[in-house]
Amino acid sequence: MPFAKCYYHIVWATKYRAAIIDSKLQSLIKEIIQQKSRELHSPILAIDAMPDHIHVAVQISTQLSVAEWARRVKGVSSHEVNAAFPDLETTFAWQKSYGVVTFGEKQAGFVVNYITNQREHHANNHLYALLENTDDG
Questions:
Q1: Residue 4 CB contacts under 8 Å (≥ 6 apart), including other chains
Q2: Measured between alpha carbons, how far is 6 from 63 in angstroms, rounded to an integer?
Q3: Which residues is 58 bridged to in the sheet?
């Protein structure tokens, strides 16, 4: 396997930005994404979710494109949420788009801190626009 040290911050939202990720869903979503990412040989540095979106800092395997990693973790997580919670008011789904930015090892601490402290950033409206963007619109 080739040597690579590439870091990605990926953010995506629930369909229609529905604020439906409660603590039960959040725990399951994070667990599933971490498990799938391990299977894909793509270690996660940080992961956290808000009621309508999720942030992940990850080193994606050189065997995968960013789009393939995102497709797989989004797909399995929405499938598993719907299987575990069949009585949700609406079917759980992610929006099709996502935002991705790369960062270097020197910026890893900043990105991990930003993800880990999502609640504070949103509560205080101290958001970093580049890390919150989920589409080109």
A1: 59, 62
A2: 12
A3: 8, 44
Question: Domain residue spans in the chain?
Answer: 7-132
**Cα–Cα nearest to 115, from 61, 35, 54, 71:** 54
CA–CA gap between residue 128 and residue 57 (Å, rounded): 15
The model's pLDDT over 9-49, given as tens digits with 9 standing for 90+, comes to: 999 999 999 999 999 999 999 999 999 999 999 999 999 99
Residue where the block lists tokens 């992940």: 56
7-132: which CATH number, 3.30.70.1290, 3.30.1330.60, 3.40.190.10, 3.40.50.300? Answer: 3.30.70.1290
pLDDT digits (tens, 9 = 90+) for 70-105: 999 999 999 999 999 999 988 999 999 999 999 999
Residue 133 has pLDDT above 80, yes or no: yes
pTM of the model: 0.93
Burial class (CB in 10 A: 0-12, 13-18, 19+), 55: buried
